[in-house]
Amino acid sequence: MSDSGLPKLEVADIIQALDGVCNSQVDIIGTTKPLLACVVSGVLRGAVVMLGGEGSEARNTDEYVALMKKLIASDIVLLAIGYPVKIAQDAGLLNPEAKELCGAGLKRVCELVQIPPVLPLGGLEKIGNVVTIAQALSSDSGLVIPKLPVVGCDAAGVSAQAVELANTFVGLGVDTFVGIMPYEGSLEDVVKASGLVDGKDAKHTVSADLEELGDAIIADIEKKRSGIAI
């Protein structure tokens, strides 16, 4: 799938937008600290990086959109890269008006900084931006990446490319949630055959039911928040 023409924001664009929640007289601008402040205060619960590559279109679009809406309604901001950008664009979730679908906290942030609840990072060639943001959040918060209330999600997980990306996220210490297609046999056998490998500081959660996957994502983010007492 060629996705080089997908809408995209650079890391600097996102940081500049988030400066809109700062008091420029006393706060340091040009960092991820405004985002962290929103998370620490509970205005935002956390963030999900949604990615998808070739073959993602095999997943029913309505399921994809329902998962995105479930997360933003729970005050979780989404960073989309690859196929989910197209899904979000077609569903109107890249528009500022999508704030009406958000929980009260995320809606407030969207209004303050004039951003949609789903931030497009472009095609998969921009995957390095995810690493940059994760490292910046870690540096600005003083927390190692595995402790941040940030997770990854591939709602389709149907290709070798998707498995490679999911393993990369887990290797960074980011819990990753994979929505596989309906299958026959045991889930254990399906996961083993997929090539997904848990890491030292993070793991994969796999489900064919995206409603169930969304619940698991929210629970993981809340567990991470509890782990750092916020």
Class from helix and strand fractions = alpha/beta
Which stretches are low in confidence, meaning pLDDT under 50 for 5 or more residues running?
none
SSE order, as H and E?
HHEHEHHEHEHEHEH
The name of the CATH topology is: Rossmann fold
Amount of helix: 40-55%
What can be said about the biggest beta sheet? 6 strands, parallel
Overall 3D form: globular
Mean pLDDT: 87
* Number of extended strands: 6
Number of continuous helical runs = 9
User: What portion of the residues fall into strands of 2 or more residues?
Assistant: 5-15%
Architecture, CATH level 2?
A: 3-Layer(aba) Sandwich
Strand order of the largest sheet: 3-2-1-4-5-6
Q: How many domains is the backbone divided into?
A: 1
End-to-end Cα distance, whole Å, is 40 Å
Return Rg in Å: 17 Å
For the record, the CATH class is Alpha Beta
Description:
The chain is α/β, with parallel strands linked by helices and 230 residues long. It has one domain (11-227): Rossmann fold. The protein has helices spanning 11-18, 33-41, 61-73, 83-90, 104-113, 128-141, 160-172, 187-194, 210-227, and strands spanning 46-52, 76-82, 118-120, 150-154, 176-179, 204-207. Strands 3-2-1-4-5-6 form a six-stranded parallel beta sheet, sandwiched between helices. Helix 3 (61-73) runs parallel beside helix 9 (210-227).
